[in-house]
Specification:
The complex is a heterodimer of chains A (177) and B (141). By secondary structure, chain A is of the alpha+beta class. Chain A has helices at residues 11-16, 31-42, 54-58, 90-100; strands at 24-25, 112-121, 132-145, 148-160, 166-176. Chain A has a 5-stranded antiparallel β-sheet. Chain A is elongated. Helix content of chain B is 23%, strand content 34%. The chains are: A alpha+beta (177), B alpha+beta (141). The interface between A and B is medium-sized, with 31 and 30 residues. Strand 2 (112-121) of chain A pairs antiparallel with strand 2 of chain B.
């Protein structure tokens, strides 16, 4: 339901712009999870050696293994990133974690489309890195389309490493209608 | 072999990168991206949600764009920026092909950059993931 005046962008939604999620901090990234990520991403062909062959990676300008740019250091976080009392079941913990990180404009329609994403890459991720992610509800606008009035919003994720270096800025473009 | 900025011509095509996608790709991706969504694994669940059958994850297609860029630029180039829009659905057995065309070259803050338009097209010729990217390459001399 739109408010009076036919807009989803109410004062409450305006006030929501800039809202941030609690930080999510990864366990130290391991060589093995980098290798597995690369194998899955390139399946069934062999990924570039710098992602899985430590000897070869030493000979590159990186001087060691690095992760694929789009590597996700936040898989299987339950048990480390729970919010509140420790749940007894992993699926509950997963649900709580996802809920805490789900920045949606208040009062918006329910139907959702994941429209696209963009990434800016900075420092590479290496084994041993501890990555912190903070999400921000950064932008909102609306348009009339084939599905009626649609609310577009952008969530910006900033990843930094244990040295405070910027690793990645990942923006998702989302639609509610 | 190193790809140098000077060797890239405006308007040239990047090498194609293709994958035939099935549950073998999607389930591996779900595992490493912690993306266990029933619609990506189970035809019945997907049909209950209005799709024809189980379908592949958008972020895997996003990863394919990156892999295509890496196959082109090798170990000495960096991906600076990638942008993609998710349009069509990726069903089992679809052959997804990433293609790209150089749209410009520029120098910025001492980096030698190349801009590329990207597309993922399936075997029916449908453009399922248009996008664009910027890479940084080493410069000769």
């Amino acid at each position: 339901m739109t408010s009076e005046g036919g807009t989803y962008i109410t004062a409450e939604v305006e006030a929501y712009i800039g809202t941030e999620s609690p930080p999510l901090v990864s366990p130290p990234v391991s060589e093995s999870e980098i290798r597995r990520f690369a194998m899955a991403a390139y399946w069934p062909e062999v990924p570039p050696r710098r992602f899985w062959d430590a000897e070869y990676a030493k000979s590159t300008r990186f001087g060691g293994i690095v992760a694929p740019d789009e590597f996700n250091p936040f898989g299987w976080m339950v048990g480390r990133a729970h919010i509140g009392p420790q749940p007894t079941h992993i699926d509950e913990a997963q649900g709580e974690l996802e809920e805490a990180r789900n920045l949606r404009p208040p009062g918006a329609p329910e139907r959702y489309l994941y429209a696209g994403s963009s990434s800016e890459y900075h420092a590479p991720i290496r084994p041993g890195d501890v990555i912190t992610s903070i999400l921000k509800f950064s932008e909102v606008y609306e348009r009339q389309g084939g599905l009626g009035l649609m609310l577009f919003y952008v969530v910006e994720e900033r990843m930094t490493n244990q040295n405070g270096e910027l690793v990645r800025v990942f923006r998702t473009n989302n639609i509610l209608y | 072999m190193t790809l140098y900025w000077q060797d890239v011509e405006d308007g040239s095509e990047i090498p194609e990168f293709a994958r035939t996608t099935t549950l073998m790709n999607w389930n591996r991706w779900a595992s490493v991206n912690d993306e266990f969504v029933p619609m990506h694994m189970d035809d019945d669940d997907a049909r209950a949600n209005g799709q024809q059958a189980a379908f592949g994850e958008g972020p895997l297609r996003y990863s394919y764009l990156h892999s295509a860029l890496r196959e082109w630029i090798g170990d000495d180039g960096d991906i600076v920026f990638v942008n993609a829009q998710y349009r069509g659905i990726n069903y089992k057995g679809d052959i997804l092909t990433v293609s790209g065309r150089v749209t410009g070259k520029r120098e910025e803050n001492g980096r030698h950059l190349v801009d590329v338009d990207l597309a993922i097209t399936n075997q029916r010729g449908e453009a399922v993931t248009p996008g664009n990217a910027t890479v940084a390459l080493p410069s000769r001399g």
